């Protein structure tokens, strides 16, 4: 079997779908690996490093045309999909809700398209969960970048010149990214508070040494995979009002709330921003899906009433080497779980709950009705 690894088409994405520390298990299985030239350029890995391990650098076209399985951190356009071999398995981050038309092209070409965003949140699939591995790193980046733009130190310091108070960090949304943001801010010595619509995460917040802010929104729910469900208009308004005081007292506010397949909810409005201290920071981690913060702009720093609103995208690419290591392992774990040693093929078994959730096209059909 030939596995091909492609460079991302999104210029802001610096990740490599192969990493030198993760390809040995594939080679040990007898899988032949080819990759698009300069695949690891943005993580400071030369082609020669991969080739010394047993992979082979080729053109993008050869990668598309010769592979039975393809790794990619971004989707392809119609012309490139047409270059894929019959029965190719395409495994990657397909951003399905914004690229629905791609599935028609994959189906027409008889390509099995697997979206890593749809890997189910079950125990067995944790090792394949790209959203979690990349969100974890994004939470770390959000704190580091916020600290860089804050004109104060994060930890308390007792000096001969006086005691420096610790910075106050407020994290809104305690999913994977939020938990890592809390942990990182605490390691840096900040005083951390956090809020989530799911009261059951209070213990997780406290276990990291942070304070859980209690805001009574009435009955709230989470999905069967652990995501927070969308709030009603009344609940959202109540959250905005009740968290204003916490935001006003914070030096850094980090928002992480996203709803899978929908625009991000607006959690910080202009009224809240007007009550915050000049020089304080708001980091909108949801800017790519519409943003949690009124006035946030993708890949921009906006200053409103003296408050800096950071709207950086592709946060995983700020730590691209580790992001590539995690992404590559996620992809490999999926591939090896369904790799048949005898036939040397990736077996697409739709009776398996992992593939039943993540496969979008197979045998010239679009499997998921909502994307037809």
Automatic annotation (TrEMBL):
Keyword Magnesium: no
Residue span, Alanine dehydrogenase/pyridine nucleotide transhydrogenase N-terminal domain: 4-138
Keyword field: NAD, NADP, Nucleotide-binding, Translocase
Gene Ontology cellular component list: plasma membrane
GO biological process terms held by the UniProt record: NADPH regeneration
Record-linked Gene3D superfamilies: NAD(P)-binding Rossmann-like Domain
Chain ranges passing through the membrane: none
Domain Alanine dehydrogenase/pyridine nucleotide transhydrogenase NAD(H)-binding residues, every copy: 147-311
GO MF: NADP binding; oxidoreductase activity; proton-translocating NAD(P)+ transhydrogenase activity
Taxonomic superkingdom: Bacteria
Protein's UniProt keywords contain rRNA-binding: no
Record-listed E.C. numbers: 7.1.1.1
CDD domains per the UniProt record, alphabetical: Rubrum_tdh
Catalytic activity: NAD(+) + NADPH + H(+)(in) = NADH + NADP(+) + H(+)(out)
Cross-referenced PROSITE patterns: ALADH_PNT_2 (PS00837)
Pfam families (alphabetical): AlaDh_PNT_C, AlaDh_PNT_N
Function recorded in the entry: The transhydrogenation between NADH and NADP is coupled to respiration and ATP hydrolysis and functions as a proton pump across the membrane.
Family as reported in the entry's similarity comment: Belongs to the AlaDH/PNT family.
UniProt protein name: proton-translocating NAD(P)(+) transhydrogenase
Lineage: Bacteria, Pseudomonadati, Pseudomonadota, Gammaproteobacteria, SAR86 cluster
């Amino acid at each position: 079997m030939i596995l091909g690894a492609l460079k991302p088409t999104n210029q802001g994405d610096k990740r490599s779908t192969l990493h030198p520390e993760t390809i040995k298990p594939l080679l040990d299985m007898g899988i032949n690996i080819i990759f698009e030239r300069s695949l690891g350029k943005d993580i400071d890995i030369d082609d020669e490093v991969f080739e010394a391990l047993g992979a082979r650098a080729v053109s993008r076209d050869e990668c598309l045309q010769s592979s039975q399985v393809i790794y990619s951190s971004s989707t392809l356009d119609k012309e490139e999909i047409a270059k894929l071999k019959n029965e190719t398995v395409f495994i990657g981050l397909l951003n399905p809700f914004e690229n629905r038309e791609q599935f028609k092209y994959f189906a027409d070409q008889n390509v099995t398209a697997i979206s890593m965003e749809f890997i189910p949140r079950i125990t067995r699939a944790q090792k394949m969960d790209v959203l979690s591995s990349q969100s974890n790193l994004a939470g770390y980046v959000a704190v580091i970048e916020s600290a860089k733009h804050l004109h104060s130190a994060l930890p308390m310091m007792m000096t001969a010149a006086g005691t420096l108070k610790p910075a106050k960090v407020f994290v809104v949304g305690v999913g994977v990214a939020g938990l890592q943001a809390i942990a990182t801010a605490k390691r840096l010595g900040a005083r951390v508070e956090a809020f989530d619509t799911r009261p059951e995460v209070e213990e997780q917040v406290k276990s990291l040494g942070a304070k859980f802010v209690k805001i009574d929104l009435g009955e709230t729910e989470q999905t069967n995979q652990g995501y927070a469900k969308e709030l009603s208009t009344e609940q959202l308004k109540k959250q905005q009002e009740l968290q204003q005081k916490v935001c006003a007292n914070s030096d850094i506010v980090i928002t992480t709330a996203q709803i899978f397949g929908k625009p991000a909810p607006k959690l910080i409005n202009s009224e809240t921003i007007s009550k915050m201290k000049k020089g304080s920071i708001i980091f909108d981690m949801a800017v790519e899906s519409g943003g949690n913060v009124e006035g946030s702009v993708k890949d921009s720093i906006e200053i409103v009433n003296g408050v800096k609103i950071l709207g950086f995208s592709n946060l995983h690419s700020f730590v691209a080497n580790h992001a590539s290591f995690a992404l590559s392992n996620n992809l490999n774990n999926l591939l090896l779980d369904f790799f048949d040693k005898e036939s040397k093929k990736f077996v697409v078994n739709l009776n398996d709950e992992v593939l039943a959730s993540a496969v979008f096209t197979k045998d010239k059909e679009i499997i998921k009705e909502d994307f037809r």
